[in-house]
Specification:
about 325 residues; Tetracycline Repressor, domain 2; disordered N terminus
Length: about 325
């Protein structure tokens, strides 16, 4: 029988709803899915919502473009992001359980702590993946195939940190697949606008996950883990500026190619100001500061979505 462990992981929000409200026997499973730390699911789902909003005016068979994306697709991408992020984290923790046991921030996760068995985690992974598949199968055939193709990237991601200093790039390939899938689910195909959005999203992931990785850089080398934080070191802030600049360039390109309205561009000043705040206040030597700036990218993603909607409504 799986052992229960009531100690929250080190990077969980203190006094989160799982610790306060969930029955003790369920807590390890909810932590394995990261429902005590939902920021990863938000970061996964924002590129999909960006794409749904940008693609709304290109949905086939419309006499006049809609101003807002399909509510069902918004709901499906929201739920799908939480399910697939949970499945991805479960898979990642199964692969990384020995490494996680050697890193301070991750040693209390359910698998390395013994709160969940490997066998139980595999069953939980299958349950989450099947629920995600059920949502994917409601999309058109092209979107179904495209969604299935992302599984290859998800499968190789846990191994990237063992062979390259840029696992954040591989994570970006997986975490921004929604930028392609949202367009495909809306239109039945892809376009240069979706590709630009995808490229920009990868740069965004490079930025926020490099910030996140600075929490672990002292433990990573002894554990045999590579990261962009270790590679960039003291040059991190200039490179973050490059990543954010590329993201905004790609957002402008996606807006132009996607035909969004003119208000989209001045509305991008809000997420731009947020990016500047991250760069000015980041302290890579303070793990708590890095975690806070990482989590703040949930707001950043929401500001980009608002900018796209503003372009649709007031273009």
């Amino acid at each position: 029988m799986d052992q229960d462990d009531n100690s929250a992981p080190a990077d969980a929000v203190p006094n989160n709803w799982v610790d306060r409200l969930a029955p003790p026997r369920l807590r390890p499973w909810l932590r394995l899915t990261r429902l005590d730390r939902p920021i990863g699911a938000w970061l996964l789902f924002w590129p999909g919502w960006w794409s749904l909003a940008l693609a709304a005016r290109h949905a086939p068979g419309l006499t006049a473009p809609p101003l807002l994306p399909d509510p069902w697709l918004l709901a499906a991408f929201f739920l799908g992001a939480f399910l697939m992020r949970g499945a991805g984290c479960t898979y990642n923790d199964i692969i990384d359980r020995d490494i996680d046991a050697r890193i301070e921030r991750t040693r209390r996760r359910p698998l390395p702590s013994g709160a969940v068995s490997v066998r139980g985690a595999v069953v939980w992974l299958v349950i989450q993946a099947l629920a995600g598949l059920a949502i994917l199968l409601t999309f058109n055939d092209f979107a179904i195939g495209l969604g299935a193709a992302s599984l290859l990237i998800v499968a190789i991601y846990p191994f990237a940190k063992r062979i390259t200093y840029w696992p954040q790039f591989v994570l970006g390939l997986a975490f921004n697949w929604g930028a392609l899938l949202g367009w495909a689910a809306t239109t039945g195909g892809l376009s240069p606008a979706a590709l630009a959005l995808y490229a920009g999203g990868i740069a965004w992931t490079l930025a926020y996950d490099t910030i996140y990785a600075h929490q672990d850089r002292r433990d990573d080398s002894p554990a045999g883990v590579k990261s962009s934080a270790l590679k960039l070191g003291r040059a991190t802030k200039p490179w973050l500026a490059v990543f954010f600049a590329f993201l905004f360039a790609m957002l402008v390109v996606a807006g132009r190619l996607g035909g969004t309205g003119g208000l989209f561009y001045p509305a991008l000043l809000l997420p731009a100001a947020h990016a500047v705040w991250q760069l000015r206040t980041l302290d890579i030597d303070r793990p708590a500061n890095c975690l806070a700036r990482f989590r703040a990218n949930h707001l950043f993603g929401g500001l980009v979505f608002v900018a796209i909607i503003a372009g649709n409504l007031y273009g």
